[in-house]
Backbone:
């Protein structure tokens, strides 16, 4: 009976996730036939090919963008979560609803919304013209900056939820007590509230950093496709170059980056704990 | 006394919430713009919605997306419910391993999951189409369905179905007449969220769609590569409205439980 109940989900996970992942690892060591398909054999050539400066640049740029995006999302996520958590309960519900709507709004809509905003002569440009910041149409899109704004916009709600989840149970009087005992604003946050928010911050960091590496829509639509993330590299290798073994190798590298970042974030969280304990 | 920095961060937080809304509001407003140029206001018009209704390619893609979302959400919710009932009977290591596997797709980058499925379909020389799309979306939605249903199932008072059994119900009747009605709301929530996730999915679809099974997001993405049109803003507005309806359908309380955990107070 138990087996029968677990079978549908179990078969899905084994057949459509685990076995396929193992196949990707296998394919990353295979050589390509003349159509870019899998020929078999064993070679490290696909990984060696990824060491080409062009591809290394993609990995470096991705790590930089993902790191920066994670930092911005953590800071803004903490600020919003703290604001939410310190409101009265009824207000919190309403504000939370306000964040849920953009979170569930279609990913593409949230991306192309920025094309409207940042186009030369568009709303943002008109505003900067009005305050004298710019003079006439400005070419802000496509650019790295537009791409970065798109990334922050896409991941910010994702980062807010776990941080808010770790802060919302906190009694407001805890911060007040620390304040009464002579803690300044910074110390209330760094010694009392941030340590409480740490598990949420860690979850938010993982939910932002790893998925950012695999994004491909935003760099194409807002960045003009010039500065690519690992996600773009994988899509290009599979759908344009049709080099499956190399695409598989790039996917395995992405998996390794995922494991490495989990280890790094975990370690960082543990060190922080020792420092504040 | 309130610290000045509290005031500053409160305003920053309000600014961030505004930042989350401005792009969406601009899409909605510009969808009613009469001008061909999306961002130059030139009077009110609903003509882009009319044009949307005439776009047969887009309507075909909408149908594909709706069908795939309908089937994969149903499969994911059913699998999630069965898994939750099965997991309640597991103990110790087996339970930990199963739940680890179940939630694995949540941490693995979706693009890798897509590549992995494509590799398997390629190795089996399966034709890419509706079936492969549905399987791909099942992978993406199952963890969310499981998350919601598992939480609700574990919170269920197990003495209720037991009481039904004591009163002479067989296992199926106890499930059908007691467990299922009690889980109606979370099951609906799980289904709606899976539907939304599947409907908006673009990464998994990139690798699992075939000729004639282009989903709505894939179609919109290829349209966007040629530039943003007022028509796309109109479609975006409808999608925002759709999201709003889904959230109302799921209910705020349920939504909060999914996203930030159960009430601690």
Residues:
């Amino acid at each position: 009976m138990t087996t029968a109940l677990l079978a549908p989900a179990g078969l899905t996970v084994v057949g459509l996730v685990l076995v396929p992942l193992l196949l990707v690892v296998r394919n990353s060591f295979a050589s390509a036939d003349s159509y870019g398909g899998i020929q078999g054999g064993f070679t490290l050539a696909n990984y060696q090919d990824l060491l080409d400066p062009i591809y290394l640049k993609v990995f470096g740029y991705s790590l930089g963008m993902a790191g920066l995006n994670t930092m911005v999302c953590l800071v803004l996520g903490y600020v919003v979560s703290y604001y939410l958590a310190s409101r009265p309960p009824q207000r919190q519900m309403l504000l939370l609803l306000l964040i849920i709507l953009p979170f569930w709004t279609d990913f593409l809509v949230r991306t192309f919304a920025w094309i409207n905003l940042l186009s030369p002569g568009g709303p943002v440009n008109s505003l900067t013209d009005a305050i004298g910041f710019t003079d006439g149409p400005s070419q802000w899109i496509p650019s790295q900056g537009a791409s970065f704004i798109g990334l922050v916009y896409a991941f910010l709600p994702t980062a807010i939820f776990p941080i808010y989840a770790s802060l919302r149970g906190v009694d407001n009087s805890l911060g007040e007590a620390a304040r009464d005992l002579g803690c300044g604003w910074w110390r209330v946050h760094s010694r009392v509230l941030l340590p409480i928010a740490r598990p949420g911050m860690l979850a938010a960091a993982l939910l932002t950093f790893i998925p950012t590496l695999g994004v491909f829509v935003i760099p194409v639509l807002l960045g003009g496709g010039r500065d690519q993330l690992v996600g773009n590299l994988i899509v290009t290798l599979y759908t344009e170059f049709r080099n499956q073994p190399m695409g598989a190798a790039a996917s395995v590298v992405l998996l390794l980056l995922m494991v490495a970042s989990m280890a790094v974030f975990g370690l960082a969280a543990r060190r922080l704990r020792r420092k504040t304990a | 006394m309130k610290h000045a920095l509290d005031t500053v961060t409160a305003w920053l937080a309000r600014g961030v919430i505004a930042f989350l809304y401005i792009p969406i509001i601009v899409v909605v407003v510009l969808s009613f713009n009469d001008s061909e140029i999306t961002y130059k206001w030139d009077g009110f018009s609903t003509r882009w919605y009319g044009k949307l209704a005439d776009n047969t390619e887009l309507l075909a893609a909408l149908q594909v997306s709706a069908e795939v979302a309908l089937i994969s959400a149903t499969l994911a919710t059913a699998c999630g419910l069965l898994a939750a009932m099965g997991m309640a009977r597991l103990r110790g290591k087996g339970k930990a391993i199963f739940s680890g596997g179940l939630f694995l797709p949540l941490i693995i980058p979706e693009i890798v999951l897509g590549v992995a499925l494509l590799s398997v379909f390629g190795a089996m020389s399966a034709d890419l189409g509706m079936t492969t799309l549905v399987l791909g979306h099942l992978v993406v939605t199952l963890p969310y369905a499981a998350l919601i249903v598992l939480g609700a199932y574990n919170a269920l008072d197990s003495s209720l179905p037991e009481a039904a059994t004591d009163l002479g119900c067989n296992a199926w009747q106890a499930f059908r007449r007691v467990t299922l009605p009690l889980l109606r709301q979370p099951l609906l929530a799980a289904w709606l969220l899976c539907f939304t996730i599947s409907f908006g999915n673009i990464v998994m679809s990139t690798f699992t769609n075939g000729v004639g099974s282009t989903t709505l997001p894939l179609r919109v993405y290829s349209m966007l590569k040629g530039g943003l049109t007022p028509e796309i803003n109109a479609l975006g507005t409808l999608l925002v409205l759709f999201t709003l309806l889904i959230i109302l359908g799921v209910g705020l309380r349920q939504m909060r439980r999914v996203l930030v955990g159960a009430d601690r107070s």
